[in-house]
Design a protein that fits this description.
The complex is a heterodimer of chains A (498) and B (538). With 498 residues, chain A is of the alpha+beta class. Chain A contains twelve helices and 30 strands. Chain A has four domains: 126 residues, Thrombin, subunit H; 93 residues, Trypsin-like serine proteases (Thrombin, subunit H); 97 residues, Pdz3 Domain, CATH 2.30.42; 144 residues, Alpha-Beta Barrel (N-terminal domain of MutM-like DNA repair proteins), CATH 3.20.190.20. In chain A, 17% of the residues lie in helices and 36% in strands. In chain A, the strands form five sheets. In chain A, strands 23, 24, 25, 26, 27, 28, 29 and 30 form an eight-stranded antiparallel sheet that branches. In chain A, strands 9-10-11-14-13-12 form a six-stranded antiparallel barrel. A six-stranded antiparallel beta barrel of chain A has the order 3-4-5-8-7-6. Chain A is flat. By secondary structure, chain B is of the alpha+beta class. Chain B has three domains: 240 residues, Thrombin, subunit H (Beta Barrel), CATH 2.40.10; 121 residues, PDZ domain (Pdz3 Domain); 134 residues, N-terminal domain of MutM-like DNA repair proteins (Alpha-Beta Barrel), CATH 3.20.190.20. Helices cover 15% and strands 34% of the residues of chain B. Chain B has twelve helices and 33 strands. In chain B, the strands form six sheets. In chain B, strands 25, 26, 27, 28, 29, 30, 31 and 32 form an eight-stranded antiparallel sheet that branches. In chain B, a hairpin with a 5-residue loop joins strand 30 and strand 31. The longest helix of chain B has 13 residues. The chains are: A alpha+beta (498), B alpha+beta (538). Chain B: Keywords: Hydrolase, Protease, Serine protease, Signal. Chain B: InterPro entries: DEGP_PDZ (IPR041517), DEGP_PDZ_sf (IPR046449), PDZ (IPR001478), PDZ_sf (IPR036034), Peptidase_S1_PA (IPR009003), Peptidase_S1_PA_chymotrypsin (IPR043504), Peptidase_S1C (IPR001940). Chain B: One of its GO terms (biological process) is proteolysis. Chain B: One of its GO terms (molecular function) is serine-type endopeptidase activity.
Chain lengths: 498, 538
């Protein structure tokens, strides 16, 4: 099954076509304030986005320009909720009201890629006056009716579709490629362009339409209100802190021989702790081979599930609803004795390796024809970095604490051909270990070693799992840089982020 | 070159390895030939027909990598062999690898005798066969002498049989001499490249090539687009026979180091190499290998072998054949026990080392398994195997990304595991049963120990699980989460009995403790696996 987001992409929308569209002002002149009171439909807005997508394959390039449209809805004074993927990499955001042709410029206030939600606001909020702020409701009942409202493909005007809540589950959110949260599946028709639109029950929002399955019928997914509320609470302090994680892996304890060997009764309770992420929230409190029995007083069964209000949830859902610096109480069995620990939550290190980056310029160093980039999910997909060495490093990045020595894994992603680099093609996609004998921590460190320190006669770069080092006569780098940067339109020999 | 060349097979669409990964090394050494002699097919009535060839028919059955207790469907393969003595027949190893039945047949298929493999070298792609018992019709045949090495441009005859028994002779010429891996990837040997048009006929898989009425070599592939074929050179056959006839087949020797070319100008300057010279960078030396014992070290630059200078891509100038890869200096005329001199550059100074060649040690992770069924052990529904490259390749297209990562990592980094193990034992899969509740999805995990003891190989794992611990529960220690899994000894024995009743032929196949050198050769692979494209091993 392929999960697709419901963003209506207009790749390569030509400026000419935009010019040919009827001038917005003419219509706006005729338009009057609605005679009757605004309905909830009026609070559902069309969002048109022009994007610039960074090019991790050629990191100095501006990237591709494209665009598309989605939906958003008013939840407070000049607060428009939509999906993160609708406004990711946006260069320009225009909001259109129902029955209006005016395109109102908008700006992102907060964006949360891990739960695919964003809050945007109009640069001039005046046109939103008098509109209803849609209230956020609770969790809907299974089999209860919902309406999805938005601006999907198939027409230009507002669309309403109806269906029922088919399933409540814990599923991946495709936007970040690495997060799973609570999800509601509905059978109302949800199509590209619906993204960011509200799912309504009665007069309350019970979710935000955001993704579907390409190979199944009538399966639309919406982000339920616990996730929405968590996002809105998280940004109250003016900053989005992301989801927290225990930093703990566990193994189910179904097996009778395993339970017997660990001295556990046959009562379907507890999971085996198999890994603690160093420097994570549980480091120092929990150990491998502890038996995790309860989280915040909720008993954990042998599959790692808990029961809250009659619903079965995975144990991580307790942490899902918490914030940085909140505490979690864990009850566990260690060496046969029952113990408990108060864990203070904090985010895990290493996000760029595991989640897609949006809205940032790719970082790189250019050195005598060599292009060095930090390993990110974006770079992995742009350069097809699927080698065993790289996968092994990313798999062990957290649990073997690789991040301590090398917060960034640096990869030689390209070799631009020139005098110095003619025979170095075999080194592309290799992981850099040392530069001039010094272990490299991150891209800034690599830049210091290559450009700021005094260079030896030969700059020696050693790689993970390569038979020989790569060697560059330092004195020649400047001339090669000048020539290559001119031919390839490379504006700078580095971009190290902000 | 790779996509075009294919083996000359008429009667078999075979397993992947047959359309083997032939290295693309030809073009470099191709030399100009003055004239390509016109090729002709000569009928049966021609006087010069040699009566020294037999049909070789083999029934081939490989093992199933995922379910090692069963074999794949049998295939039939037929080709030609050449009689070199009344009871010795030479053919390609590829022809008889994994055979379960072998027979030799006359050209008209009227007579046949059963045969056996006396010696086989999968890397050099040669096999020596002999009849089982009475030689039968072979007695009336004329054995051929082995030809002396030929020269570029020499005419060569290639022999085929038609279905009706007619002998076909094609005249071709030697267009170049090169090294090529004709069967197993990564094992290049001296090869004659023939130019000449041939037709497909029955039993076209492996054909004899002769020169002046003497046996020159075994033709293993033909590219019909370019009309180019590859023939295993007589030097290799000579060395193979000398080794095989002394009783124990030891195989071609290896040096035990990995090299990298030195074309990169900056790298040459850094190493202190002259602008116009040659040399190969030593990127790895296998511990206890002949190279290691000779004192070779990583970072040395190999300048010459037995006085033959190597260029920056590893070619040396052969007096008759022109430029050839340096590996020819080690494994065309040399056998185990021979000594070679290695001229190296270390710290700016030339030195000469002397290495005594040895037989290849079986590697931790075999690259190719032939005629040797994969070992396995089933305990309580857990299936354990020993890691081989063939197991990983069985994951099909994109196997390097589809095979389990820990196993791929072990294959690429065997040195991380070599010290404590004879082989890498891993939990391949779980056959679901009441004893494996909660374990059903485990697989692709390396086993470190069992019942508190480290596991060096699968035989040891079997021995450790043979004894029931005091608490009646076996522990199996894995290299990753969940770390340890537990099996109830009594229940797992019952479960295993049920598997036997349900048709599993046996619960284990363990390798024999002592391997003869010939068997070692069977599972031997390159002393050092080829790790990167730019790195070559010897």
């Amino acid at each position: 099954m392929i999960i697709r987001t419901l963003f209506c992409g207009l790749v390569g929308l030509s400026p000419l076509a935009a010019q040919l569209a009827p001038p917005a002002e003419t219509v706006a002149l005729v338009e009057k304030k609605p005679a009757q009171a605004a309905t909830l439909f009026d609070s559902v807005l069309r969002i048109e986005v022009a994007t610039q997508n960074p090019d991790y394959g050629t990191p100095w390039n501006a990237g591709g320009f494209s665009g598309g449209n989605g939906t958003g809805f008013l939840i407070g004074p000049n607060q428009i909720l939509t999906n993160a993927h609708v406004v990711s990499n946006a260069r320009r955001i225009l909001v259109t009201q129902r029955n209006s042709a005016r395109k109102l410029p908008a700006t992102i206030q907060h964006i949360a890629h891990d739960c695919d939600l964003a809050l945007i606001s109009l640069d001039d909020p005046a046109p939103l006056e008098g509109l209803i702020h849609l209230p956020i409701g609770g969790m809907p009942e299974l089999d209860s009716e919902v309406r999805a409202i938005g601006y999907p493909v198939g027409g230009d005007r507002l669309s309403v579709t109806r269906g029922i809540v088919s399933r409540i589950d814990f599923r991946p959110y495709s936007h970040s490629r690495s997060d799973s949260h609570l999800i509601i599946q509905v059978d109302a028709a949800i199509n590209p362009g619906n993204s960011g639109g509200p799912a309504i029950q009665g007069d309350k929002v019970i979710g935000v339409a955001f993704q579907g399955l390409t190979q199944a019928d009538n399966t639309g997914y919406i982000i339920p209100t616990p996730v929405i509320n968590r996002f809105l609470t998280d940004i109250e302090d003016g900053r989005y802190d992301k989801y927290m994680d225990l930093g703990l892996t566990s193994f189910p304890l179904f097996n009778p021989a395993m339970r017997k060997a660990l001295g556990l009764p046959d009562d379907d309770r507890g999971v085996l702790v198999t890994g603690i992420i160093p420097d994570g929230p549980c480091d120092g409190f929990m150990q491998e081979n502890d038996i995790l029995l309860a989280i915040d007083g909720n008993p954990i069964d042998s599959a790692g599930n808990i029961t809250v209000d009659g619903e079965t949830l995975v144990l991580h859902e307790i942490v899902e609803r918490k914030f940085a610096k909140d505490t979690v109480k864990l009850d566990f069995l260690r060496d046969g004795s029952r113990q408990s620990a108060e864990i203070i939550l904090k985010p895990l290190p290493g996000a760029p390796i595991f989640t897609v980056i949006y809205g940032e310029r790719p970082e790189y160093i250019f050195y005598g024809g060599l292009v060095i980039q930090p390993l990110t999910l974006n770079a992995m997909s742009a350069h097809r970095l699927t080698g065993v060495t790289i996968r092994h490093l990313t798999t062990n990045y957290l649990n073997k604490a690789i991040f301590r020595e090398r917060p960034e894994i640096l990869v030689l992603t390209r070799v631009e051909s020139d005098e110095l680099t003619a025979n170095m093609g075999g080194f592309t996609d290799s992981v850099i270990n040392t530069i001039n004998g010094e272990k490299v921590r991150d891209l800034k460190h690599a830049y210091e070693l290559l450009y700021e320190k005094e260079q030896p006669e030969f700059t020696v770069i050693e790689f993970e799992n390569m038979g020989r080092p790569l060697v560059i006569p330092s004195a020649k780098v400047e001339a090669v840089n000048q020539r290559l940067m001119k031919t390839n339109n490379i504006p700078s020999n580095h971009y190290l982020g902000e | 070159m790779k996509t075009l060349s294919y083996t000359l097979l008429a009667s078999l669409t075979a397993t992947g390895s047959l359309l083997a990964d032939t290295p693309e090394e030809h073009s470099a050494a191709l030399q100009k030939v003055q004239l390509t002699p016109t090729t002709e097919l000569v009928g049966e009535k021609e006087n010069q027909i040699l009566d020294s060839f037999v049909r070789v028919n083999a029934t081939i059955q490989t093992f199933n990598a995922g379910q090692p207790w069963q074999r794949n469907n049998p295939q039939r393969r037929s080709g030609l062999g050449t009689l070199i003595s009344p009871t010795e027949i030479i053919t390609a190893a590829e022809m008889v690898a994994n055979q379960t039945y072998l027979e030799l047949e006359s050209a008209d298929s009227s007579q046949s005798v059963q045969a056996k493999v006396v010696a086989i070298d999968y890397k050099a792609n040669l096999a020596l066969l002999s009849p089982v018992g009475d030689p039968g019709f072979l007695a009336k045949k004329t054995p051929l002498e082995i030809a002396k090495p030929a020269k570029i441009g020499d005419p060569v005859n290639v022999w085929q049989f038609e279905d009706n028994g007619t002998t076909l002779k094609t005249t071709a010429s030697i267009r170049a001499v090169d090294t090529s891996a004709t069967f197993l990837s990564g094992n290049s040997f001296l090869t004659y490249i023939l130019k000449g048009s041939m037709q497909s006929a029955s039993s076209s898989f492996t054909l004899p090539a002769t020169r002046n009425g003497k046996f020159l070599g075994v033709l293993t592939s033909y590219d019909s687009d370019d009309q180019i074929s590859e023939v295993i050179a007589p030097e290799i056959i000579e060395t193979f026979l000398r080794d095989a006839r002394d009783g124990i087949y030891e195989g071609f020797p290896t040096l035990g180091c990995a090299i990298q070319r030195t074309e990169d100008k900056s790298f040459r300057q850094y190493l202190g190499l002259s602008e116009d010279g040659g040399g190969l960078y030593i990127s790895r030396v296998k511990p206890d290998s002949p190279a290691d014992k000779a004192g070779m070290k990583k970072g040395d630059v190999l300048l010459a072998v037995d006085g033959s200078e190597l260029d920056r891509r590893g070619y040396f100038q052969h007096p008759d054949y022109g430029p050839l890869t340096w590996t020819v200096l080690i494994r065309s005329g040399k056998t185990v026990g021979d000594t070679i001199s290695l001229t190296i550059l270390r710290d700016g100074k030339e030195q000469t080392l002397s290495a005594t060649l040895e037989a290849t040690q079986p590697p931790l992770i075999p690259r190719h398994i032939n005629d040797s069924p994969p070992p396995f052990l089933i305990k309580g529904g857990l299936v354990f195997q020993e890691l081989s490259r063939e197991y990983l390749r069985a994951f099909g297209d994109n196997w390097t990304t589809r095979a389990p990562l820990p196993l791929m990592y072990a294959m690429e980094n065997p040195e991380d595991y070599e010290e404590e193990r004879n082989s890498i034992v891993f939990l391949a899969r779980v056959l679901p049963n009441p004893a494996t509740i909660g374990y059903d999805r485990l697989g692709g995990m390396i086993v470190n120990g069992a019942n508190g003891q480290p596991v060096k190989d699968i035989a040891e794992l079997a021995a450790l699980l043979e004894k029931t611990p005091a608490n009646g529960i076996h522990t199996i220690e894995l290299d990753e989460a969940p770390g340890v899994i537990y099996l109830d000894a009594e229940i797992s024995d019952q479960v295993d009995q049920q598997f036997l009743q349900q048709g599993l032929p046996t619960l284990s196949r363990l390798p024999e403790k002592k391997l003869s050198p010939a068997e070692v050769e069977t599972i031997a692979a390159e002393a050092l696996g080829e790790k990167t494209e730019t790195e070559e091993s010897e």
